[in-house]
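Reviewers asked in the last cycle whether our approach scales beyond single polypeptides. To address this, we selected a multi-component target totalling 1776 residues and predicted its structure end to end. The input consisted of the following lines:
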Amino acid sequence: MSQFQVAVAGVGGQGALLFGRLLAEAGRSRYEHVSYFPHYATIMRGGQSECTVIISHQEISSPITFELQAVIIMHPQFVEQYQNRVQPGGRLFLDSSVVPHKITREDIEVFYIPATKSAIELGDDRVANLVLLGAYLEATKAVPLELVEKALEGRLRGGRGEALLPLNKEALRQGARLITNYGGWKDDQRRNSY
Amino acid sequence: MSQFQVAVAGVGGQGALLFGRLLAEAGRSRYEHVSYFPHYATIMRGGQSECTVIISHQEISSPITFELQAVIIMHPQFVEQYQNRVQPGGRLFLDSSVVPHKITREDIEVFYIPATKSAIELGDDRVANLVLLGAYLEATKAVPLELVEKALEGRLRGGRGEALLPLNKEALRQGARLITNYGGWKDDQRRNSY
Amino acid sequence: MTRGEIVIEEQLCKGCGLCAKFCARGCIAPPKDKLSPQGYLLPIFANPEKCNACGVCGWMCPDFAITVYKYIEIEEAAAT
Amino acid sequence: MTRGEIVIEEQLCKGCGLCAKFCARGCIAPPKDKLSPQGYLLPIFANPEKCNACGVCGWMCPDFAITVYKYIEIEEAAAT
Amino acid sequence: MRAEDVVKQVVCAPPKLKLPGPHHHCPGCHYGIILRLLCEVIEELGIEGQAIGITGGGCSARWVAYLDVDMAGGIHGPGVAIATAIKRIYPETIVFTIQGDGELGAIGLGSFMAALLRGEKLTTIYLNNACYGTTGGQMAPTTLLGMRTTTTPQGRDPRTTGFPFHGAELAASMRGTAYSGRVSVHTPANRQRAKKALRAAFQRQIEGVGYTLVEFLSPCPPNWQLSPSDCLTFIEEKMIAEYPLGEFKNVAQIDY
Amino acid sequence: MRAEDVVKQVVCAPPKLKLPGPHHHCPGCHYGIILRLLCEVIEELGIEGQAIGITGGGCSARWVAYLDVDMAGGIHGPGVAIATAIKRIYPETIVFTIQGDGELGAIGLGSFMAALLRGEKLTTIYLNNACYGTTGGQMAPTTLLGMRTTTTPQGRDPRTTGFPFHGAELAASMRGTAYSGRVSVHTPANRQRAKKALRAAFQRQIEGVGYTLVEFLSPCPPNWQLSPSDCLTFIEEKMIAEYPLGEFKNVAQIDY
Amino acid sequence: MTGEKILCEGNEAVGRGAIYAGCKYFFGYPITPQNEIAEFMARELPQIGGVYVQPEGEGAVAYMLFGGALTGQRVMTATSSPGFSLMQEAISHLAAVEAPAVIVEVMRLGPGAGTGGQQGQTDYRQVTKGGGHGAYRCLVIAPYSAQEIFDFVQLAFYLADKYRIVVIVLTDFILGRVAELIELRRLDFEPLPQKDWALKGKAQKEGRRSCHLSGLVWGGVTGYFSRQLDKYQEIVASETRYQTYKTEGAQLLLVAYGSMARVARDAVDRAQAQGMKVGLLRPITLWPFPKRAIREAGLAAGKVLVVEDSPGELVEDVEVAVGGQVPVHLLNILARHIPGPSGLIYPERVLQEVKALI
Amino acid sequence: MTGEKILCEGNEAVGRGAIYAGCKYFFGYPITPQNEIAEFMARELPQIGGVYVQPEGEGAVAYMLFGGALTGQRVMTATSSPGFSLMQEAISHLAAVEAPAVIVEVMRLGPGAGTGGQQGQTDYRQVTKGGGHGAYRCLVIAPYSAQEIFDFVQLAFYLADKYRIVVIVLTDFILGRVAELIELRRLDFEPLPQKDWALKGKAQKEGRRSCHLSGLVWGGVTGYFSRQLDKYQEIVASETRYQTYKTEGAQLLLVAYGSMARVARDAVDRAQAQGMKVGLLRPITLWPFPKRAIREAGLAAGKVLVVEDSPGELVEDVEVAVGGQVPVHLLNILARHIPGPSGLIYPERVLQEVKALI
Ligand SMILES: Cc1ncc(C[n+]2csc(CCOP(=O)(O)OP(=O)(O)O)c2C)c(N)n1
Ligand SMILES: Cc1ncc(C[n+]2csc(CCOP(=O)(O)OP(=O)(O)O)c2C)c(N)n1
Ligand code: SF4
Ligand code: SF4
Ligand code: SF4
Ligand code: SF4
Ligand code: SF4
Ligand code: SF4
Ligand SMILES: [Mg+2]
Ligand SMILES: [Mg+2]
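The resulting structure, written as structure tokens, was:
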């Protein structure tokens, strides 16, 4: 495709913005144009935190757009407003560990990813965002997962997060695996989640 | 006359404003309309201090006007600019104790009043303004001198200035006398002055 | 002997763990793997039998999430 | 014996009288009836013979109006 | 003891003056504990009907929506000026401000000092978390020396940014001040002392004595980049070393 | 001694750094004396080429036109903020502010406190005439208790307007301050002490130690409604009673 | 109701008008040329159980106004240009919580310290268009005599309460200083609703709580702005005020406000006396601006001359009003007769311009 | 000169642009959504011998800018709406002494605390018309991409020095946050005269003294204002900037600036793709305002739609520009899609309006 657009919505601390930033950084080696718009209020701790990423071969007129090819929902409070932002034929990814909803739209593809559960199993609930990113990449092939790993390395190398690099990469790969083995929405998955 | 306009110009401390205020206060019992515009800058101590008074039987459109029937000059720095503000046929009063100039305009009446000298003789140089006011009243008959005395009483009664009332009244009367006995500009008068 | 009980309002808890930290009797297990509806990890009232209803966990909870109940035998209650 | 002299710049003096107040030797008469070109009453260097050119009046004049001169005999001056 | 012989008595529940619903503070932020103290003290003093609270622009701005008394706010800096007007107009009300250290020690410093000079009869709840919490943890006047923040990436250096601001001591040094103290709520015992201080401050306002202030040390886990638990140690070891706890002034009368 | 044997030596004349012409201060205002001290000290310290002065909005605003060094000003309040920027950009210059008590103690209080907290390496010449002189003698934070002004027509009452502001003591209490003292020029002996203090303050700035401040008591004859001579007595008896003269701090090094 | 007539300067008329309007709380800070207002209030208010507070600067003054306004009592301040600039953030907060307050701005000249308190009309744009952030509006009233100052201050309090808006009464050095005879009279207005939103402690309101957050976080962005737009529309429709003087048959329309409208009126008198057909339209509210009236009068006259003591601000609004249909000339601050503390534009100079144009 | 390309958010581009322009002195105070600028400068400047000072508030920041500007060095600050309001008095003083400085205003929404740092374009009037007292002007540049932010900050420093004026670079929450690829390049400008008026101590200037009084006391009132009027006229003539996009043959002209120009541009793309003849004119300088260009393009199209994230401010200037000749429609803040922290106006909504109008 000549352009990928995705919005990620979570609450402060869930890492929605890192998802977007990594995708944008990875995207720039494959696309001439990249825009990344994080939308959050520092004044609102724990408040809504969303971002929009566009990676494109053409110039990007607007970095914001209502309907997108893909939307990632990390928290139940966003289901209502964000499911409408998926273009017909687009994809919606939910962290099914925390989002209990079953989406009824028929014109889009929905992925229920138990991201937080997977993350806890990997050892840290905070990598749920990377599980979702791995899933997104696997499902859309927007950029190769390796480029995101490189972007991650660039961020963590030398800092106090360096030790977390293997965990992070594992989370990405786990996300990808969840898509490879994706079996659709399962009722029991939801009940497990909280 | 149906209207009197006068501007008084001095430096801070000379009492130009009191001249105007007293005239305006006295004027209000004889005229339906009165305006008094003191023009000075508190920020500029010792700076220019002028006022314009209009007392009138008609409504006063503008409280400021460039040309006036009468102008009082209390300090040499104003001679240049204020002599032009007398209407043809109007009157100019100078404190000749401090203003050494001889006015050359022929179309106006000029009164050289040794106001500060008279004031010092009366015991306080600060009543020079009242000497000039007395002179102005005597020359123009704008309002009776007694009304100004009443206005003075209103201001001073009960305050710490009460004791100064006789001196102030005497200054007014001395000014009036200087007009009654007015003899024109005398060279020696000027040389005495400083 | 169980002397009291705490109830954690899951909608309010943010998983800071201060309750667990300040329960001197070790009744509360720090947040670990139970997720709240808001996505926070929840502490667990793990050892109710040790609770003496001292109230500390409630007073120290920054999120007004804990209610502490003291068990009073009926005779006692009537007496007070 | 006159030891010095002061010159009051009339254009600058505002007649505050501080010079007169602070001349310990009473050389300066307070402002009374001499008017300056600015309309202020001027102090007068009334007793020059008492002046020892101490400089105090000049230093204390808020208006930079006073210059104080000390008379020095020529031999003295040459020596310094 | 059988279940049916037992009555459950509520020992601790959300205070009456706390409006229902969650607040927006970060996990482990002590602002919630302090908010609770404030509710309790107002309730215990029976001044709920007279109380008027003014919040600042920091993280406590939204206490206007948490505390069930008359409230206004959301402005960064001039809390004491706003409160002064209200108190002067209605001297019988009990007016308090809630202000962060970025606010009281920086943009509101002039207003604060001026209110101290005037000895306004207000109560200020001063929240010292050693940073601008709301805006992302920039250096505040209270930031500890050596502490890294987003605007002191190498650690705060007194040669370029000066020395920490001591609000409670400053307030205590002024003639018009009736009460000033510094407290913390990082342990249950400290929490109880803090409550006492807060009550004493309000009491002095009720008596009409003078300016009253209680400075609360508080952590900011996301900006300090420490876990809630490590924050407690940091307060104990680092914050209190710079900002000693205690009652610095408490007088029944101002000497006019 | 014959006239021709005598040479006239100038003992006292307008200082070199005073630009020619009259200044606008009222008769008997001591600002002129203080201006003179400033000229003398800058000249004697040999810092004329490095000196940059910032005036406020009060009666000293126009010193920009009286003092022959680089100067800017005319703004009521933020003198120390302006000066801070200059000093930070050119650390080798000697930057001083001239500020009234209405300015330093009121509208500029926040900037002043903040500069003290930061320990900016400036010299502040702080003119305390117990009122807003320029605007007509309204109550300033320094107005003496009981003193009548145009905004305290019944005399200043601490119950509604608070207590006098003590700038020099406040400055001395701050860690970043190198020098702070209060002086007066109302007698020749005091004038000499004042000059020493001013020189000491500049010296500390030259050494790069910290913030330096000299507070000058000064009369305001028209607004005090006293003659120049009665003003001297008022300073001696009333002003000094509230504002004691002295050197409150003078250190060669700040303890970082 | 007719009352006593006194000789009263404009600044004093402000204070008197405020007290007649029931304002007992004033927050002030010295600045020329409005000091007389603060001094009047400091003297008078304590005698009527009111309060004068002089805080540390104009910023604080404006925040006291904010706090005071929220108590539901009538509150006021007065200031001049630099002080007014310092109030902009607070005015924006007042707009955010829709608190009613009256600010008297006695303009002084120019940017910065200007002439330190002299004549000028150089705050027109700041007062009518901008000032603080957030696209709010203040109602701006420009009296032109001491009597109008006295009356309009009362009107200002009424409008502030009616619309929950900040009302600015704009005067200047001349108007503040000119003493004229004024009649002390209490103006009657429509009754106003209770201020049930006021902060005074729940006990005074049967336990009802009031809450004001200066923010759009909960109220909703569009809700707030559509409410403001409605309010502004109503103000434009109902509160636009202006006065015409001798405009009947005029072949040149002068437009001026405040002190310059007095000067222009004098020029109109003189011109008419000399047989020239010249009239004056004087905006009384500067926002809302009498756009249509100026358009109509301007088109009727065929030529417009704006007189303002500024490099040219009002003229922009007049140009917009007439929309390029007729020529708009400007007599601006450069027309001052300069000797004098900072110069003034005199009627004679206006007349000269009128002659040149007619 | 082509440089490295980096992924850079708008706020960071401000800091980078400033450093490329030789600015080493920054005065800052935290306020969302511009914190990243101050943080970037706090991190970078000490490494190049520069200085970051964080004083007690935005008022003090602006006065530091004043002091800094007078040293002759390039100085900058950045802030957002409430902070910008607090700077108004100081900006007026900068105008009074004609000191050059650059202020980046990253607008947030609404009056008061608004949404506490969210998207909005509600400072248009404050920035372009008013702000402080004294009828001065600031040059206002509105970039619409990270690259333009980087470039225009450099331009801003050049223009500030050239005209001795305050230049405001106006962005908003969206532009400050959006990261895009920018090319790091140093722009070349005409050489500028020496700043012989700078304060640096007489020793650095062969004993020449510099003196700046923020006032018109000595310089003369008319002298000051006629110099300003000349300067403003020259700026209007030489520095008015705008961009047109697909206006050729357009039957509807969209007018928008900054972030909303991006949104409008997207709508133009979509509309054109659907065969609608729609173009965009984007003012780059908001003062001077590209009045004539808008008039011409508006008349050519016959219909104008203003898109702004405000109740309606830009629209006033557009109305003045077209002078009632063609209808001017407004898509304003009420068109926001509200879910989300405070809602946004999306291209889809603009397109919908375009369809309704065409
Ligand atoms: C005039 C103005 N400047 C800056 C801001 C941005 N701002 C909001 S809150 C805040 C400070 C937060 O720090 P603090 O007062 O310490 O409160 P905390 O968040 O730490 O509780 C700032 C700078 C603002 N709202 N208004
Ligand atoms: C923002 C602002 N507010 C008020 C003023 C008016 N003003 C000019 S100087 C001054 C204060 C004068 O008092 P002080 O600082 O004590 O100096 P003094 O005149 O007594 O020397 C004031 C209030 C101003 N210029 N700017
Ligand atoms: S009430 Fe006391 S004992 Fe029981 S859980 Fe809470 S802290 Fe522990
Ligand atoms: S203290 Fe409260 S918020 Fe924290 S973990 Fe315990 S219950 Fe949850
Ligand atoms: S001290 Fe100076 S100004 Fe005062 S009277 Fe003496 S010479 Fe004149
Ligand atoms: S120099 Fe000394 S002695 Fe001479 S007049 Fe002056 S003060 Fe008196
Ligand atoms: S940012 Fe800091 S102060 Fe604010 S709520 Fe979070 S922890 Fe508390
Ligand atoms: S008003 Fe006061 S301070 Fe100002 S010059 Fe006059 S005496 Fe000095
Ligand atoms: Mg804080
Ligand atoms: Mg003073």
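The radius of gyration of chain A is 15 Å. We regard this as preliminary and will revisit it once experimental data from Aim 1 are available.
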